[in-house]
Design brief:
Strand content: under 5%
Structural class: mainly alpha
Order of helices and strands: HHHHHHHHHH
Number of helices: 10
Distance between the termini: 37 Å
Oligomer: single chain
Radius of gyration: 18 Å
Length: 170
């Protein structure tokens, strides 16, 4: 139900998670899934609360930290996003999603130099990462490196299948 993408199914999933919650108050996976359901509905505050609860229950549980980091980016709370990404990267330095969250948080506070260095390191390991290419194009754009930004956006737009971020970037 949660993964269906259908609002009625997501509402039912939330009801089921909430019904089980009083019996399983110390289950971080339940809290994480409830947070994911709220996130699917666009309720960032309820999602955030449930991800934070999952982390309180099990501090080394990575999925809610990554999800919460994404919410912090959306809410422009860059220091919090970077802190969570750094926590995950200390445990698993090769995990790409928190690396991207960290880079985006760095860009959010205009630390383009560090962000660019980390992006180039990431792209040396994953040259086909569209997410990293998009972030590098955003950094180029923010630093008025328009020809570089255009080249990166064009590459994304002309990829197979085309990446909508490249089209919008152009």
């Amino acid at each position: 139900r949660l993964r269906s993408g259908k609002p009625a199914e997501i509402d039912e999933a939330i009801k089921e998670f909430q019904a089980v919650l009083p019996k399983m108050t110390d289950n971080p996976v339940l809290r994480f899934n409830l947070g994911e359901a709220y996130l699917s509905k666009g309720d960032l505050e309820q999602a955030k609360t449930n991800f934070q609860e999952a982390i309180k229950i099990k501090s080394n549980y990575i999925p809610p930290k990554v999800a919460l980091g994404r919410i912090y980016l959306r809410q422009r709370e860059f220091a919090k996003a970077q802190q969570l990404a750094d926590e995950v990267l200390r445990v698993n330095p090769g995990f790409v999603q928190p690396r991207l969250i960290r880079i985006e948080a760095l860009m959010g506070v205009s630390d383009f130099r560090t962000a660019r260095t980390e992006l180039q390191m990431l792209l040396s390991k994953l040259p086909n990462s569209r997410d990293a290419q998009n972030l590098l194009a955003l950094a180029d754009l923010a630093e008025a490196k328009y020809p570089d930004a255009e080249k990166r956006y064009r590459s994304l737009a002309e990829a197979t299948p085309p990446d909508h971020r490249g089209i919008f970037g152009l």
